[in-house]
Amino acid sequence: MITGNVYSASHVELAPKAKIKGNVYYRLLEMSMGAEVNGQLIHMEDDDTELTNIEFDAVDLAKDSPKLDHSSD
């Protein structure tokens, strides 16, 4: 799960198990059945410069990332 707003200057793709607790700012959105957004979906026009001026707290995505086991490599 991602907690916090998501900002994209181009394409956002939400997979079936994606979970976001926050707003999603996007230009192009692809959302699979089963994905969850608990917040607002905010479409940005191509000429909007708002994304370049937004300050936001970094989200620690590493804690939710799958751990890869390379011990057999």
TrEMBL record:
A Pfam entry, by short name: Bactofilin
Name of this chain's protein: Cell shape determination protein CcmA
Species this chain originates from: marine sediment metagenome
